[in-house]
Amino acid sequence: MTVASGRVDQHDVVILESADIRVSVDVERGAHIFSIVCRETGTEVLFQDPRGLAGHVVGGWYELFPNAGPASGEPAVPQHGDVRSARWRVLRAQEVGDGGVLHVVTESAALPLTISRTMTLDGRRLRVDETIANLSDEPTPYLWGHHVTFGVEPGGETTIEVDSRDIVSLGAFAPGASIVRADAEGAGLDDLPHKDGGVADLTRFPMEPASEMLFARTIERARASVVGPRLRVDLSWDERVFPALWLWIENRGAHGEPFRGTTSGLALEPQAGYLPTLESAIRAGIAPILAPRGSVDAWIELEVRSASTCPEVGAGVTAP
Questions:
Q1: Is pLDDT at 317 greater than 80 in this prediction?
Q2: Element (H, E) at 279
Q3: CA-CA distance, 81 to 73, in Å (whole number)?
Q4: Is 48 exposed, middle or buried (CB count within 10 Å of its CB: 0-12, 13-18, 19+)?
Q5: Tally of CB atoms within 10 A around 9
Q6: SS in 3 state form for 217-244?
Q7: How far apart are CA 317 and CA 207, in angstroms?
């Protein structure tokens, strides 16, 4: 319906809007998708970082490239990669059908790699098509993923659907407030060993304070969902490029910066590999390698459905 440019928190932003959802993108910092609003219900889909656009750390949907987890390597590739903080150039922004198209590009300062992204909003669905390219004559290892962070109401119930029988907690990356046993393995989110014995079922967002970082080493199907009484949000992606999924679950368990014991949110993170640093993935021989002057294409889609369009919504759980 509309495509508009403007300023939010002194950042240049582009807004795509259809009859169903409104998508806001911070092109000045990371092409960070900082807001997706369901127009029918007025519900914000993504977690809103209280620091705003200038200081966001965990909010919204951002790109992880050419690293995904903590800083690593020599020379060091920053935590979550450096394109998430870079300015992206707008090549095209225009209305198309019931929505619009935004095409942006940027380059990594850490490695000789570029990334191009086309975001297409059509009704209830946002599709992201991307290409990464190697500017050098040397094969270059990388990590690549998406950090899609949903807000969750404390004290309610939110269901999480992930199609994997191979989920692990890596001890070196387990948060201190985790309720899952360190280095645990499970055949699903409902089959993870609880640190106090028994089983931790994380198909429902935890009621108790908890901080989790989990890794689906393999997936049965490249699809995951968050379901509540007002909205169902489905995420699907290119399994060829993103064969793993990370899950970050935070319910008032982390008290250091930037969480302060008040954050409730969860992230679904399609990833190029299950190990969370480029250095560790290279050592294990599982880091993808971009050929000299080569390129790789990938896609990811998010669809928002309300109770009026999805019978599963409204089954006694609280919206994301």
A1: no
A2: helix 278-283
A3: 11
A4: middle
A5: 15
A6: CCCCCCEEEEECCCEEEEEEECCCCCCE
A7: 12
Phi, psi of 318 (to 5 degrees): -95, 140
Tens-digit pLDDT profile for residues 85-136: 999 999 999 999 889 999 999 999 999 999 999 999 999 999 999 999 999 9
| pLDDT greater at residue 269 or residue 172 | 269
**Residues in Cβ contact with 195 at an 8 Å cutoff, skipping those fewer than 6 apart:** 178, 179, 180, 181, 182
**Location of structure tokens 């089959």:** 191
Provide CB contacts within 8 A for 258, sequence distance 6+. 49, 51, 57, 58
Band (51; pLDDT cuts 50, 70, 90): confident
Question: How far is the C-alpha of 108 from the C-alpha of 155, rounded, in Å?
Answer: 40
The CA distance from 58 to 145, in Å, is 14
Whole-number Å distance between alpha carbons of 96 and 100: 5
β-partners of residue 180 are: 194
Q: For residues 170 and 117, which has the higher predicted lDDT (pLDDT)?
A: 117
- 54-63 pLDDT tens trace: 777 778 999 9
CA–CA distance, 109 with 138 (Å, rounded to integer): 16
Nearest alpha-carbon partner for 315 in 156, 103, 166:
156
Distance CA 276, CA 233 (A): 25
Mean of pLDDT values over 14-23 = 97
Place of tokens 């919206």: 319
Closest CA to 64 of 202, 221, 237: 237
Tokens of 197: 């014995």
Q: How far is CA 320 from CA 51, 62, 157, in A?
A: 20, 18, 9
